[in-house]
Design brief:
The protein is α+β, with helices and mostly antiparallel strands. The protein contains 3 helices and 4 strands. Strands 2-3-1-4 form a 4-stranded antiparallel sheet. The termini are close together.
């Protein structure tokens, strides 16, 4: 199992667009084979920060997600949104 966590901090002027893009990505990604969970939530201490939490059955499933048309579209559109910062980490986990 692969777990991905991350955060995106947007600019106040572009926050609503960032949120819409992230929610669209979440909805599409959650339907992908091998996706166990895909969530985007707003930080309670910084309303301009979004937290992303993903769980994938395998590295293969995550790789397919990263190569999907909707992820490519998200990345392209994200370049048009003002971000203060972003960071993501990937972990391998074992059930049990």
């Amino acid at each position: 199992m692969i777990i991905v966590t991350g955060q995106l901090t947007g600019d106040a002027a572009d926050y609503e667009r960032l949120l819409a893009l992230a929610l669209d990505l979440m909805r599409e990604s959650a339907q992908e084979p091998g996706c166990i969970a895909y969530r985007v939530t707003q930080d309670l201490q910084n309303r301009l920060r979004l937290w992303v939490f993903e769980v994938w059955q395998s590295e293969t499933a995550l790789t397919a997600h990263l190569q999907s048309p909707h992820f490519a579209s998200f990345q392209k559109l994200l370049t048009e949104v003002a971000l203060h910062d972003s960071a993501f980490s990937r972990y391998r986990a074992q059930e049990g």
